[in-house]
Amino acid sequence: MDAGEDGHIRTGTVWTATAHAITSIIGSGVLTLPWSVAQLGWIIGPIILFFFACVTYYTAILLSDCYRSPDLVNGRRNYTYIDAVRVCLGAKDVVLCGIVQYGVLWGSIIGYTIATAISMAALKRSICFHKNGHDATCEVSGNLYMIIYGAMEIVLSQCPSLEKVTWLSYIAATTSFAYSLIAAFLCVVKFATNHEFKGTLMGAKMGHGVSPPLRTWHAFQALGNIAFAYTYSQLLIEIQDTLKSPPPENKTMKKATSYSIGATTIFYVTLGCMGYVAFGNDAPGNILTGFYEPFWLIAIANLSVTIHLVGAYQVFAQPIYAVYEKVLASKWPTSSFLTKVYTIKFPCTNPWNFKFTLCTLVLRTMFVILTTLISMMFPFFNAVVGLLGSLAFWPLTVYYPVRMYMVQTKVERRSRKWMGLQILSMLCFVATLLSGIGSVADVIGSFKHAKLFHIEL
């Protein structure tokens, strides 16, 4: 175990980092990919999938070199993404970056809560169709499932830190592969039974309620959905801070990044393209809601989604807990509310004694309750995913990693590398701007038609 120069014990390896990364990358966004490819068509859709994968991988490699400053191997540790921004760019960028980063993390958690409820509601409706036939009226509400999911997260929120939920990430990473494989398999089977190659070169066509503006908004929103599917960079530094050394943390993190993004890209391209060839331009916003048979396989897939998102919730929530608890501790260092540790002992299970402070018990519980209530009020999945992707991708995945890397490695202004990085940043800014326009338009449209506290399937 590595106690490090700061006295903090780190036990992470390339495999634990890969598990955390896969858990944070493969989330609810993967279920929107067939719909996203359907909006872009056979030419642009796969190209965009590979483009976002390459950009995410490259900027993640740049960001991993910002964990220690100023020296890449022996410099001072930056424990969080915000710490790296503060050291490399200064205090002026910290506030804006913090608002974006933690806002997107929170928004992702809201999206996960909605996605879990959709999966469980789809499972219940699948049971209804299995018993009563596909012509039966099987209306379900996702509110109960959101409440159950929230209750589970209240319990798990008492885990002290991200490093302590590694076991949850292993389970979540395994289940993410499970439901991605099942969804891809179901799409292959549907394609085989259709006996036709669906989809068009340029995506969804006008007509049948699809106007030219709506088609444009949906194409732009698809960019945000794909960007959200590659959400990762804002958690990279936090994951890297769990790694032991030697070898140097940046070297281990680069390996974990290549493994995790490589594996997820294979899944994304397979599922996105196979879902499109199976459903064509009628691909549903959540691909699993398009299947009801075989019943047992659909059940496994939806349960896998639920289990995965239980773990992903904590991977995204722990950095939020850490930052506000750190701020509170700095302002009131002697407060018993923050520092006094209480212990609940369970008979014959000494290692499993429950230790907590009133701060973690009360504030984390309130956070989960508030998140659940917001998810219940605005349960439109696709619009939320697209908006989050558009908000997160350029600033957190491209802009700040590129700027920090250029400062960290002293890239010469107007050099070939400097120009290349600037062009990359501008291209991604345009993609983010377009996806933001499309996602905002879809959110407004969803407000007009959606019912509060009524989930869409």
From TrEMBL:
Which keywords does this chain's UniProt record carry? Amino-acid transport, Membrane, Transmembrane, Transmembrane helix, Transport
Q: Where is the Amino acid transporter transmembrane domain?
A: 10-444
Listed transmembrane segments = 12-33, 40-63, 99-123, 144-161, 167-192, 259-279, 295-316, 354-374, 380-402, 423-447
Matches recorded under Pfam families: Aa_trans (PF01490)
Q: What is this protein called?
A: Amino acid transporter transmembrane domain-containing protein
Subcellular compartments: Membrane
Query: Which InterPro entries does this chain map to?
Result: AA_transpt_TM (IPR013057)
Q: Which superkingdom heads the taxonomic lineage of this protein's source?
A: Eukaryota
Q: What does the entry list under GO cellular component?
A: membrane
Q: What is the lineage of its organism?
A: Eukaryota, Viridiplantae, Streptophyta, Embryophyta, Tracheophyta
Which GO biological process entries does UniProt record here?
Answer: amino acid transport
